[in-house]
Amino acid sequence: MTTTLAAGGATTFFAGLGTGGVALVLTVALILGTRKKGAETTFSKGLALTLGLAAGVVWAGAGIVWGMPNDVVLSALQALGVGRADGPLGNVQMPAIAWVLVIVAYLVRLKPRTAGVTGILMATTFAAAGGAWAIVATSIGGFFLGLAA
Q1: Distance between CA atoms of 74 and 97, rounded to whole angstroms?
Q2: CA atoms of 138 and 41, how far apart (whole Å)
Q3: What is the CA radius of gyration of the chain?
Q4: Which residues are CB-neighbours of 106 under 8 A, at least 6 positions away?
Q5: Distance CA 83, CA 69 (A)
Q6: Mind listing the pLDDT tens digit of every residue in the chain (149 residues)?
């Protein structure tokens, strides 16, 4: 019975946030958790990267103003010719950009805030790359979107 009460309480606690509400919560957590102020601890690189990826997926799902970063990233990649055979970099497709972001995320020493922004870029790129990349993004984002219901 205690387990049922705990689960019911958690459901009530998180219920009704809405997609925009989850986007807001993740955004505030990402901003406040990655700031560097004195000796305060901030999120680790991995946590910031994961929250950034989740925020990016939730933002795209929330739409309207929240979807603007997604649109900006896609427009920038299209301007660079990604996805076209005749682009200035040659035939570069979205999965190549996804791989580059993963390599940067794990091989470059990123500060937590930069890792969070990289996660946001990953959300857009992974979704556009499709296949297994989209599964990764939707798995992480899906957990947080589940809180919106």
Answers
A1: 11
A2: 29
A3: 17
A4: none
A5: 19
A6: 344 444 444 455 566 788 888 889 999 999 999 987 776 768 999 999 999 999 999 998 888 888 898 899 999 999 999 988 888 888 999 999 999 999 999 999 999 999 999 999 999 999 999 999 999 888 887 787 777 76
